């Protein structure tokens, strides 16, 4: 077997690095998709006239996703080099590397949505919540809360050890998200009782569908609803009413 060539100077190191990037781009469909998405998002950022800091944050978020995809490919290549037969540890290594890509992609998507939402202006801002005229960005709050509720629900599922992250578990993430969104809408509409009852009914339908589909028990759906309401109430208290 030929020995792996070592870089003789900085130019060789740079060339090998470029070859590695090119290899991942040519062979990995996900890498091509992420690269195209990063380019489109950066172009959209320029069209939206993002300032230098916003463009830097957007570019860094995209770069982290691309780096994670390259590390994932490197891990898969090493595992395949070591063994071609099925081994639970080999599968675990690949799953963890793929999970790292998923985490960075979700984080980058959240950062991107928050940056672009900030450009939508006052059309999507809530009415004043303090006498001093303080405003709470509705879409920003919605994005942050949904991500927060999903992350906490997934952590509870993993710690509980019952079911899987995507199916079953000790808490219904669907119910948690549904009731969190319902609480945001109720806070937005204020004294509009009809809208409040309507969004609560929709949240209950989401929870009930998880029970009827035998994905969750009634207790797990109730736990999910309480989780969504509790997180939303806590966020609004500490960000708006807490002192």
Q: Average pLDDT across residues?
A: 81
Helix content: over 70%
Order of helices and strands: HHHHHHHH
Query: How many alpha or pi helices?
Result: 8
**Secondary-structure class:** mainly alpha
Sketch the major β-sheet: none
Shape: flat
Number of domains: 2
User: What is the CA-atom radius of gyration, in angstroms?
Assistant: 23 Å
Residue share in β-strands: under 5%
N-to-C CA distance: 68 Å
The unreliable regions are: 122-136
The total count of strands amounts to: 0
Structure report:
By secondary structure, this protein is an all-alpha fold. It has two domains: 10-119, Helix Hairpins (Orthogonal Bundle), CATH 1.10.287; 124-241, no CATH class. Helices cover 75% and strands 0% of the residues. It contains eight helices and no strands. The chain has helices at residues 10-27, 29-47, 52-82, 88-117, 138-160, 173-189, 193-212, 218-241. Helix 3 (52-82) packs antiparallel against helix 4 (88-117), helix 5 packs across helix 8 (218-241) and helix 6 (173-189) packs antiparallel against helix 7. It starts with 9 loop residues before the first helix and ends with a helix.
């Amino acid at each position: 077997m030929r020995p792996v060539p070592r870089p003789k100077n900085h130019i060789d190191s740079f060339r090998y690095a470029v070859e590695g990037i090119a290899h991942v781009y040519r062979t990995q469909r996900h890498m091509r998709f992420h690269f195209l998405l990063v380019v489109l998002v950066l172009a959209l950022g320029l069209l939206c006239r993002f300032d230098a800091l916003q463009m830097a944050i957007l570019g860094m978020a995209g770069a982290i996703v691309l780096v994670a995809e390259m590390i994932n490919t490197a891990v898969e290549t090493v595992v395949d080099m070591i063994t071609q037969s099925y081994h639970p540890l080999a599968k675990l290594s690949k799953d963890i590397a793929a999970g790292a890509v998923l985490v960075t992609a979700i984080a980058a998507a959240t950062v991107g949505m928050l940056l672009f939402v900030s450009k939508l202006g006052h059309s999507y801002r809530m009415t004043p919540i303090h006498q001093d005229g303080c405003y709470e960005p509705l879409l920003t709050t919605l994005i942050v809360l949904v991500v927060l509720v999903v992350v906490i629900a997934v952590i509870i599922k993993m710690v509980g050890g019952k079911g899987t992250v995507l199916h079953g578990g000790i808490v219904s993430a669907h119910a948690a998200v549904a009731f969190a969104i319902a609480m945001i809408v109720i806070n937005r509409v204020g004294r509009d009782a009809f809208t409040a009852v309507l969004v609560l009914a929709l949240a209950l339908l989401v929870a009930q569908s998880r029970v009827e589909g035998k994905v969750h028990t009634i207790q797990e759906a109730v736990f999910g609803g309480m989780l969504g309401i509790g997180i939303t109430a806590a966020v609004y208290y500490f960000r708006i009413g807490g002192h």
